[in-house]
Amino acid sequence: MMSDIRDGFIHAVVVYKLDRISRSILDFSNMMEVFSRYNVQFISATEKFDTSSPMGNAMLNICIVFAQLERETIQKRVADAYYSRSQKSFFMGGPIPYGFRKVPTVIDGIHTSMYEPVPNEAEVVKLIFNMYSQPNTSYGDVIDRLNELGIKKRGGNWARPRIREILVNPIYVRADLDVYNFFNENGAEIANPPADFIGENGCYSYKSKNEKKKNSTTVEGNQIVLAPHKGIVDSAVWLKCRMKCMSKKQMIPSQKAKNSWLSGKIKCGECGYALLAKSFSGRPHRYLLCSNKLNSKACVGAGTLYTEEVEQLVYSEMQKKLAQFRTLSPSKNEMPCTEQNELEIELAEIDNEIKTLLEKVRNSDNALFRYINERINTLDKRKADIGERIRELSQKKDIPADEIDLHLKIWDELSFDDKRQVADTLIRVVHATDQKIAIQWRF
């Protein structure tokens, strides 16, 4: 229409009502400027505006202000309704994730839909997660294996973006307290209390109310809601894959490790970026160098670290750590520690309460501030007591370690990949400088 106006084909524009042509003040103002330039008459069938007079133009502008207000009100109402429904675990539309099908259900008396695992696709999902959870496996390795097995993605070919979409989606995880803590520690907004995370249901993930697009690289600000369907993947495997996807520059090297079995595990103690094992011609030693310093000079570096010395030190620490336990995982017949689980739930609830109290500090008066301060001090003391009790309970667990112990005894005979897998079983991450080496264990 605007193009025809500029070409001189239109002499009048007739609308049923003003808000049928525009609900934006800026858009309408620009439109009326074009009408005026090309002598086009504007007519609203249900509203009488005399645009030849100042009063008529003023009334026209007032009406468009209310039209824009109505548009923004409707937009806000729709967004609030979407948010409210999503917090109740209702199905919110969108493509059905691989591994599931949609089935009807009733939640709080409302007819909606939910996901149900498709057995053969669920097995493929488990294979993808189990493969990628290995430290030296890439998206390409997963795709190659799926192609070898002749597995297609609902008739189509697999691609790296599709593999990543599966790996970062919490729809597949059997969400337990570890998953809750992961989302909570990484800044996600969680709709359900910690006690609901019992290791059965998957999770829906929505963008924050204030964001236009969900960020799959991090989980900060995302809305996490427990879904009514059963998850497919164990939480430990899902968390390994999710953390590996979150920050590739820090979690895994850009290419497969070949210079050190610690590659991907060892980080600079100064900046947290990966330490790379490098060798130089004419020098007898291999060195661990900060990737951040090498790439951007943004870090002072970890100092002089010889790869062989650090590997030997970490190997010795693995032997000492393993000597504290008899096994690495609880026996299948052993019941989980109910007390520890309850304490971890209470710990998560305390963190939530402290977070809520801190948000109220800004608008509090002196009396409320004193109450908040006293309450936080009480909660902090309780946190310390719970932490100490959890450590005591953890030390009492029987953890079988025969197989790993055997690997450590024949360490020099192991292949490079076997060493990496043993290290991944025991170690979460190593932070190192020439002054200090700190190891975060998986148990």
Could you walk me through the main structural features you see in this protein, from its secondary elements to its overall organization?
The chain is an alpha/beta fold and 443 residues long. It folds into four domains: 2-87, Resolvase, N-terminal catalytic domain (Rossmann fold), CATH 3.40.50.1390; 100-246, Hect, E3 ligase catalytic domain fold; 249-327 and 401-441, no CATH class; 338-396. The chain has 15 helices and twelve strands. The chain has a three-stranded mixed β-sheet with strand order 5-7-6, with helices on one face. α4 (119-132) packs across α5 (139-148). The longest helix is centred in the first third of the chain and has 34 residues, at 54-87. It is elongated. Residues 249-255 and 327-335 have low confidence and may be disordered.
State the main characteristics.
443 residues, alpha/beta, Rossmann fold, 4 domains, 3-stranded mixed beta sheet, 15 helices, 14% strand
**What does the main sheet amount to?**
3 strands, mixed
Got a strand count? 12
Mean pLDDT: 82
Number of helices: 15
Output the structural class. Answer: alpha/beta
How much helicity do the residues have? 40-55%
3D shape: elongated
CATH level-1 class of the largest domain? Alpha Beta
